[in-house]
Each structure stands twice: as C-alpha cells, then as structure tokens.
Amino acid sequence: MNGPLFRLALRRLLLRRRSVLLALAPMLAALIAVVQAAGGTANAKEFASVMEQLFLPTILPFLALVIGSSAIGEERDDATILYLASTPLPRLAIALPAIVAAALTTIVLCLPGLAIVIALSPGDDFTISAAAWALASVVAGACAYSAAFGALSLRVKRPVVIGLVYVLFWEGSIATFAPSARWLSLGAYARAVVAGGLPSSTDFNVPAIGSLAAAAVLAGLAAVATWWCGRRLTRLELP
Amino acid sequence: MTLVFRGVSKWYGDTVALAEVSFELTPGVTGLLGHNGAGKSTALALCAGFADPSTGTVRVLGCDPRREPEVYRRIGIVHDRDGLWPFLTARELVELMAGLRDVPDPRQAAAEAIASVGLEDAAERRVGGFSKGMRQRVKLAQALVHSPELLLLDEPLNGLDPVQRRHVVELIRRLGAEGRTVVVSSHVLHEVERMAHRVVVLVNGRLVAEGETGAIRDLIRDRPRTLRIAAGAAAQRLARELVGEGLASGVRIDDGMLVVETADMDALGRRLMPLARDLGASVDRVEPLGDDLESVYTYLTDHARGRGR
After folding, report:
1. Could you report the predicted ipTM of this complex, rounded to two decimals?
2. Hey, is the C-beta of A237 within 8 angstroms of any chain B C-beta?
C-alpha cells in the first residue's frame, strides 16, 4: 500500500472538526451502558444487546457511511483526485489507501464509545475474550462498511442519502430483526464476529457461521468492494 | 510527435464537445485557443487521459495514458479546477506529487519547482490560506516538479496579477525553448501570442485553424483585410481608383488616412504603388489593421459560428 497516500487520506479524514462530532455517535451506546451500570443490570447479555442491536448495525455503519463515502467521493468532487490520477500509480493503488484510511478513521472514532461500553459491562460471564471479539467485530465491520460506502460514492451522486436509507431501513431495522435477512447484511456478519466471545444464549439474529468465518466474509467483501473501486476509478471519466 | 489527436470526437449525451479534431504537436509552446465551451478543457482532459474519446485516437508520447499510466512520469498537468488539499503546505504538496511520480529526490525537486514559480516565501504555509494566484502557482509547481517532457496547462494564468503573469509567461517560454512540449489553453489571446509559437484554434468543438500564426493567416487568406494608407491630399482620388478597379470592397477616410478593405490582398499590393504614381499621390505609409491574433481568432470564430452546428 502506498504510504504517502495513506497518510494523506488519514489526515484528510481524521484530522478535521467533523471527527469530533462523529465520535459522539458511539457515545449513545456508552450512555446506554452507563444507564445499565447505574441500574445494576450490566452483564454480558446487555452488552451483547447493545453491540448486536445498536452498535454494529447502526452506529458503526453510520460512521463508516459518512467517512467512507468521503474517502474517494470527496476527492472526486473537489477534483483533488486529478492530481492522484496524473501519477503512474494504478487506480487500485489510489483506492486502497483511501479505503484503509476510512476504515481506520471509523475504528478510531468508535473506540472511545466502545471502550466505555466494554468497561461498564463487567460480570462473571464477561471475559477479555468477549472484549477482543467485540473489537474484532468493529474492525471487520468498519473495513467492510467503509469499502462498501466508498464504492457507493463512486456509483451514485448522493451516497450519504442513499447510504443513510440503507443503514436505517435495512441494517438497523429489517436485517437486525428479521431472521430471514440475517445472511444478507454486513451487520449480521459483524454480529456473528462479536458472538464468538459471548455465551450463545445472547446471540441475536446471527447467521449460523463461526466468528472467524464471519470475519473472513467481511474481509472478503471489503476486498471485493475495494477492487471494484479501483476498477471504477480506472473507467471513470474524471471532471 | 509528442501529442497526436486523430479524428477525435467527444460527446456527452446530446452535447458534442469535440467533433473530428485532428492535430499533432511537437516540442515548443502551443496555444490552445477558443472561447468558453469551445472544447479546450475537453481536449486537454483527453490529452491527460482523464477521459476516453468517443471516437478517434489520442496518443501522448506514443502512449495511451488511460491504459499506460507509466507515461505520467513524463507529463505535467495543470487543470482548471481549484481543488487542493488545504491542510498541506505548498512544499508538502509539491513534494508529495514528486514522490508519487518517482522523482529520486522529492525534497530537492520540490524546492526547485517552488522556486521556479516564485513561491519560496510561502512554501511552509498551508495552501488552504492561499490566494487564487498562489494556488495557481502551486498547481504549476506540482506540474513541473518531475521535469516532464509534456506540459498540459489549462488556463495557467488565471488569477495571477500582472507581475506574476509576466513571470509565468517567461517560465512557459523558457520551458518551450528547453525543448519541452507545452500546451497552454487560454482565451486571453494576447498572452498566448507572447508565449506560443503556434496555435490550435477550437470553435464550438471543431478545429478551425492550426499551425504557426502566419500559417493560420495563410489558411484564411480569403478573409477581408484592412489597410490604412497615408496618401496625403490624394487619398480621395486614390480611393476612387481602387474601388473603380475592383481592388477595394470598401474605403473610408479616417483621421486623414485612407482605410481600405480588400478581399484580394495580393492584387492590391501589386497595383497600389503604380496607381498612386499615376495619380501623383505619395504613399508614405501602409499598415495592416486587424492582423493580430485577436482579429484572426475573432474572424475564425465568427466564420465557424456562421456555418453553425
């Protein structure tokens, strides 16, 4: 991966005022954890509930949408991509650092909220392993969502609007609560990853697939979407 | 040939941006002239590999940049959009572009490119706070940083103050004199005249003239030409004779000088002095009017628009 382009994308996506506001979104999950802790109801089941029904299907994709869609789409809109396109780099080498930087930015902005949720979820059945799988689910989900929304930004004119409809009506609603949709959702695979560290009794609309396999599915989808971004950039006529 | 356009057309939906345009460019500075919407930026975008022609072939340094991105090591591009990464300093931006184009010593190359556009004092400032003219010079510096053989400059003088314009015009002339192929698009004709040894004129997406300025004039030799003749007191008699012999399509006296419009410059040139001698008139001075590039361009534009699309 091209280091200078990765650093450029990271500066562009992470070091801006918007990041502070976006980092507040995961605090909603933290707030729920605080309420649960204050009420003495914090446990692995409640932790799973917050992660599987709120954090992974709604908060994570919302952040990835805003960040991922600006990873390449914003450069196309403000024409800075013309500078990158006038270098000998293959277009995939331009897309990859942007997607990786978007995923990393999404993860970084999720971390404070996630850390609070984990810290406030002690209990006999909550282990370090659960925390590690929770982190893994955020990482894998961030990669898949960022790549998917990066690809969306190269395909449609209003990626945030369309992405928001997708997040709210599909990932956050139908795919979270309808068992028949559990195989057709990025969030469902992220739930399958976090489920690896939690008792099976806490599984919520999770596809019947192991955590590692689910992570592999998300990584594969991220790779395909990133490859598609490179291909799309190759064919796209720039402004 | 550095740059070859062969039968190139480009359309967006129902809009024809370029129609059957063919030209070849060699080292030196070439002006790409045309009014807004004439197809200049489209032509440069095709040269830069940012778009595919709808029909025809574009070859840049023998390559197709859309499929052979390695050629970008030899091309420098200033596009007309204003976007730059606002959080980078001028030095960081130019150095980044040098690195991405595999320049062996990006830092040194960036320093030289920034100096060549006179931006040393602002090199460590973020480009987000730059004026339009400074941003334009950053764009120029990043295009020069890898010492390219071909430079595609879309309106490079936009936003520059007169001193900066003079500096950049000199720079472009120097680059052409060094043997690089420089394509400068502009609608500011007098500035193009100062830097380009040849011009390509686009009107409504069609190439209406191409070549040395003089060669373009040859191409349009049949256009009406205007001469101002200092013929003293015999001006009126001379005018009558010129019209009588069918050498002038229009005459008038302007500030004591005879202004003659003619469609046959060669015949007028042959007959003027004998006629003046026969009339006892002394012709002190003959000067062409409207032979500057601006007039040629205006004529070509009107001519092509008259034919319509």
Report:
1. 0.81
2. yes
Query: CB–CB of A82 and B50 under 8 A?
Result: yes
Interface of B with A (CB under 8 A): 45, 48-52, 69-73, 75, 77, 79, 81-85, 87-88, 96-97, 99-102, 142
Å between B21 CA and nearest CA of chain A: 19
Domain shared by B256 and B127, yes or no? no
Model confidence at B233: pLDDT above 90: no
> Does B106 share its domain with B239?
no
Residue of B nearest to A79 (CA): B83
B204 and B158 inside one domain: yes
**pTM, rounded to two decimals:** 0.78
Task: Mark whether B141 and B88 lie in a shared domain.
Answer: yes
- Residues 6 or more apart whose Cβ sits within 8 Å of residue A161: none
Residue that the structure tokens 């949720």 belong to: A117
Greater confidence (B190 vs B129) lies with: B129
Q: Is there a contact between B282 and B232 (Cβ–Cβ < 8 Å)?
A: yes
